[in-house]
Amino acid sequence: MRSSKEMQDEMNGQGVTDPEVVLGSDVEPVNEVSSAQAELEQLKGERDQLLDRLVRLQAEFDNARKREIKERADSRDYTVSNTVEPFLGVMDNFQLALKADGTAEQLRAGVELILKQMEDALKGLNVQPVETVGTQFDPRIHEALGSIETKEFPDHQVLEEIRRGYKIREKLLRPALVRIAANADQVAD
């Protein structure tokens, strides 16, 4: 019989290596696979956490968007109600005027009072009429509907207000429709 040394030499001659070395090389890939699996599990856990966080952030964003829409609608309703409230009394007085059986003078006096009430309501909202008659024409706040030939007034002075213009603070809501003076003597100068 052959000795184990002879058998080992024969195996070495045929390209077979030491059995311990063969077993050791098989163990290393097993360690690499288990570490890769551990890393994969860790990455899956991180992914799940990030997906959960993303879902929560999307829900928070959606809730914030819905809350903002509701708050905007509430704010608009509040603004409209505060704006309309002063005009309800004006409407009531118009209805009373329509039911009244008075003379034309009494009706005119009542309409003037209602107009005063309307002007007060607008002042409460910081709405002011644009200055017109007697001022110099300003295309930023006036719209000229025509001119009147005259020698008594300076050229481009507002002579007549056809429709009142309004502004809120410094912002123009609508320009005033006016007729202006056309003084040929001053144009030539």
Low-pLDDT windows of residues:
19-24
Order of helices and strands: HHHEEEEEEH
Strand content: 15-25%
What's the CATH class of the largest domain, please?
Alpha Beta
In one word, what is the shape? elongated
Q: What structural category arises from helix and sheet content? A: alpha+beta
Count of discrete alpha- or pi-helical segments spanning 4 or more residues: 4
Topology (SSEs and partners):
Blueprint: H1 4-13, H2 19-99, H3 104-124, E1 127-129, E2 142-149, E3 158-163, E4 166-168, E5 171-174, E6 176-182, H4 184-188
Parallel strand pairs: 2-6
Antiparallel strand pairs: 1-4, 3-6, 4-5
Helix pairs in contact: 2-3
In short:
This protein has 189 residues and is α+β, with helices and mostly antiparallel strands. It has helices at residues 4-13, 19-99, 104-124, 184-188; strands at 127-129, 142-149, 158-163, 166-168, 171-174, 176-182.
Structural overview:
The chain is of the alpha+beta class and 189 residues long. It has two domains: 108 residues, Hemagglutinin Ectodomain, Chain B; 63 residues, Nucleotide Exchange Factor Grpe, Chain A, domain 2 (Roll), CATH 2.30.22.10. Helix 2 packs antiparallel against helix 3. 6% of the residues are buried. About 3% of the residues have low confidence.
